[in-house]
């Protein structure tokens, strides 16, 4: 199934979409984006729709939470799953095997406090848990051994923020919005659980103010924001503002109107390197594969500027061409193969013993694009770490699938696959270009791909 899906994606995405960026992840189905800026990097946590989610609305197959990073907003590095239902021993039905309770790992959010990372995870039907790690990429552990929020409070879709006075707030819920203060340890409650009254007033699901789910809380320039999936169905992204984290909330409008290209939605909003971004998702890749609705979503991003009064302009539906890159990528540094702006036909895998993530399911005609690499005076050669299978070639091209061929890296057949370094000469070319790596070969999987680097 996995192989077949990759091949179909390659065939459909090859049709003139090489300049796309949205959705920003193509190697897996991702949803419920929760971006976190930490130091100079955006950490994007997502939920994960499995490839074999059956047809039909609401038939989710969600077992783990994924993490991606970027420093330029267009090239995203895949760190694989950082936590799963198996992290929560109390989610007993979830850990008896993936069968029977596969639809639990819903919309998460991570926040940093005093050098520790807290990942709030809904286990649908069981409550909201919290995991802690010393590193944003994990490993995450459950410090409590029980849910932080029990299952009686519409307990999905947590969002968390820390106010300027150090008080942390956790919000969540569908169909109601609930909130509670957290203690400084971020894993215990500092007050009663409260149902928010502003959102509860709007009962009509077609009312643009109607709170559905997927809240995203933050503070900016002294104002409190609550973005959320609004109206049903489809869901758009609406937002409200307040002078207090406890409301009352005033509805401000749509950030994005509902669109039939998606049933659900889930905002994630950040400021990064002087720009503002909203994340959400669409079903573009699912509907490239089939006319049938499967719960197989894909995370998208759009850039925006706040109005002078702090309100957010209404944005068009996710544009396929995506957003502008911040800065350039240095191709003389080792670049993980799973650092990708756009790809076709590829999957990624995480070695469970080493934690190494690599690109796999590479077949003839598959490709990946890295945006905006600064070649400077021009590289002389290309080095890559690969594990050969049937063997094949990596064509190193500039700017498009048919762009200038700088070189071809040959990879001989090898069984069983073992990691080796391969190298090829490059025609020197200067300046800033997109790097397009096109995989060519015969039948079957050609090789796995760990990293690449250009050499002067
Ligand atoms: O992604 C699973 C669930 O679907 C989310 O937690 C909800 O917001 C809805 O989008």
From TrEMBL:
Q: Which PROSITE patterns is this protein grouped with?
A: CBM6
- List the Pfam families: CBM_6, Glyco_hydro_43
Annotated CBM6 domain ranges read 333-455
Sites marked Important for catalytic activity, responsible for pKa modulation of the active site Glu and correct orientation of both the proton donor and substrate: 157
Q: Name one GO biological process term.
A: xylan catabolic process
Example GO molecular function: carbohydrate binding
Signal peptide extent: 1-20
**Presence of keyword Cell division:** no
User: Is the Hydrolase keyword given for this protein?
Assistant: yes
Question: Which keywords describe this protein according to UniProt?
Answer: Carbohydrate metabolism, Glycosidase, Hydrolase, Polysaccharide degradation, Signal, Xylan degradation
So what family is this one in?
Answer: Belongs to the glycosyl hydrolase 43 family.
Q: Which PANTHER family match?
A: ENDO-1,4-BETA-XYLANASE, PUTATIVE (AFU_ORTHOLOGUE AFUA_2G04480)-RELATED
- Protein name, UniProt field: Carbohydrate-binding protein
Annotated source species: Filimonas effusa
Q: What is the lineage of its organism?
A: Bacteria, Pseudomonadati, Bacteroidota, Chitinophagia, Chitinophagales
């Amino acid at each position: 199934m996995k192989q077949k899906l990759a091949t179909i994606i390659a065939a459909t995405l090859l049709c003139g979409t090489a300049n796309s960026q949205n959705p920003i992840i193509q190697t897996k189905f991702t949803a419920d984006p929760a971006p976190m800026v930490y130091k100079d990097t955006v950490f994007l946590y997502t939920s994960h729709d499995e490839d074999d989610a059956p047809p039909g609305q609401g038939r989710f197959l969600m077992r783990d939470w994924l993490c991606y990073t970027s420093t330029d907003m267009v090239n995203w590095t895949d760190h694989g799953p950082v936590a799963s239902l198996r992290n929560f021993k109390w989610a007993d039905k979830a850990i008896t095997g993936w069968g029977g309770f596969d639809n639990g790992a819903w919309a998460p959010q991570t926040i940093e406090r005093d050098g520790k990372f807290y990942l709030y995870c809904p286990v649908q039907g069981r409550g909201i848990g919290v995991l802690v790690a010393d590193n944003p990429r994990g490993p995450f552990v459950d410090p409590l051994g029980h849910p932080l929020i029990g299952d009686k409070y519409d307990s999905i879709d947590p969002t968390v923020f820390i106010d300027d006075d150090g008080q942390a707030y956790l919000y969540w819920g569908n169909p109601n919005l609930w909130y509670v203060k957290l203690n400084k340890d971020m894993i215990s409650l500092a007050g009663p659980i409260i149902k928010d009254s502003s959102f509860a007033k709007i009962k009509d699901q077609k009312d643009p103010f109607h709170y559905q789910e997927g809240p995203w809380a933050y503070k900016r320039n002294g104002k409190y924001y609550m973005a959320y999936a609004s109206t049903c169905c489809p869901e758009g992204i609406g937002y409200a503002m307040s002078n207090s984290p406890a409301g009352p909330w005033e509805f401000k409008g749509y950030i994005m109107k509902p669109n039939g290209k998606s049933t659900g939605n889930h905002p994630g909003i950040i400021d990064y390197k002087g720009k503002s971004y909203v994340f959400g998702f669409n079903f573009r890749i699912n509907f490239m594969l089939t006319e049938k609705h499967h719960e197989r979503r894909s995370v998208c991003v759009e850039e925006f500027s706040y109005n002078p009064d702090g309100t957010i302009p209404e944005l068009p539906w996710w544009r396929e061409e995506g957003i502008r890159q911040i800065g350039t990528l240095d191709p003389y540094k080792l670049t993980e193969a799973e650092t990708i702006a756009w790809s076709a036909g590829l999957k990624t895998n995480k070695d469970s013993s080493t934690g190494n993530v690599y690109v796999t399911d590479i077949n003839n005609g598959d490709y990946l694009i890295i945006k905006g690499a600064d070649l400077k005076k021009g590289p002389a050669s290309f080095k890559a770490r690969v594990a050969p299978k049937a063997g094949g070639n990596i064509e190193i091209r500039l700017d498009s699938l048919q762009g200038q061929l700088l070189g071809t890296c040959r990879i001989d057949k090898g069984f069983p696959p073992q990691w080796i370094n391969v190298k090829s000469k490059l025609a020197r070319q200067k300046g800033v270009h997109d790097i397009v790596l096109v995989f060519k070969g015969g039948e079957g999987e050609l090789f796995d791909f760990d990293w690449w680097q250009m050499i002067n």
